[in-house]
Amino acid sequence: MRNLAAGLFAVLVLVLSAQAQNPPARVEMRPNYQSWGWDALVLENGLITLAVVPRIGARVMQYDLGPHHSMFVNEAELGEFYEPKPDSIWHNYGGYKNWPAPQDRWNWPPPPILDGATCEARIAANTPDSAVVWTASPVEQWRTPGLRFERRLSVYPGTSRVRVEQTIVNQGEQADRWSVWEISQAPVHHPGVQDFENFWVYFPLNPHSRYGARGVRTTLDTAAAWTGEVAPGIFGVRFMPLNQKLWADAPEGWICYVDEREGYAYARTFELFPGAEYPDQNATVEVWLNKDPLYLEVEVVSPIVELAPGGGRYTFVEDWWATKVKGPILRVNQVGAIARRLTVDGGGANGRYGVFYIGTARLVFLDAKLQVLGQGARHPVTPLETFSLDEEVDMPEGTTRVEVWVENAARERVGVLDSAELK
Prior knowledge:
- The chain is mostly beta strands.
- It has 2 domains: 26-323, Beta-galactosidase, Chain A, domain 5, CATH 2.70.98; 333-421, Immunoglobulins (Immunoglobulin-like).
- It has helices at 2-21, 112-116, 279-282; strands at 26-30, 40-44, 48-53, 59-65, 68-69, 96-101, 120-127, 130-136, 147-155, 162-170, 176-186, 199-204, 216-218, 226-231, 234-238, 244-248, 254-259, 264-270, 285-290, 295-301, 305-307, 312-323, 331-332, 336-345, 348-355, 359-366, 372-375, 379-381, 387-392, 401-408, 413-421.
């Protein structure tokens, strides 16, 4: 009986330990959240905090990893609300929002109802496995008549991932063609200083870019903010207060904003649709540098799609990720952000990563047929700490490929973080 009790106690300890590592996802409405003057639907999982404000266009005004902020909040507009009108001026609250693209169909200012009207919002799920908020805007009446947006934002336990489903709906009487435009405003300096050099955006360059050898199109070609290739195939934008814009036809679906001083990275991943028409001369990612107030915008656009009349809809899906790692960021996948690629030589393996899950990472050795020959030690990983791999390895005979596998806290494999081919 004592052995049985001891065994049950050990199991209980393991269960409680796993629960401590993976607080459940949860969502609740909080009045006057952060003393902003607005109520907010707040999604949390012990790693990240996401705040959605229905009153001002259902903006996401907070996406934090631990104590670190990734969303610019315009303090001059806190608590304000402006009833949309045909001649409304634009009030910039900050945070994340959607506009329809291409912009040249409505010029400026943005469609006032889509941008800032009070939205319907509800908790769509609130279980230990996921916390989900659904929002819907009223129908735009003036600048893009007949359009409205819906969003579904989901948070899960044990990961910094936010699933962002952005749906554009055509309630008009005629078919129409639009793209979903995602715009997120981010901080560009730390409190009390103007340390702009610490705030960067990274994305992959298209070697066959329609914009030529430079791989980007910009409103001001000579700006030092357009740093160029910071690593092979990776473009870096360093913030400067310029009121200037960059467009790129990235060949992979990711873009990443980094606070280099504190070492926090916030990435978007999304599907690309080769051969589809995109707005802005077929750009897939865009970066705007703002002067007053100070912020930058990370922007992602969907293909332009045909929307049937009377409710035709299209959903463009992104995943948002957050992790603790400094750039330059060389690649982002569904497991983590890579800051130094995996190298295996001289009996050692090295790499530097920001992982998006609480769990473990380990080296896996494979042969030419991708059969597993052996595995390395398990390393604990979390989005809250940089994972610096530095492991002595004794590779099995016949190894031709080494991969870094990541498992979550339940020992479920979530994917391959990085890999290296052996010569």
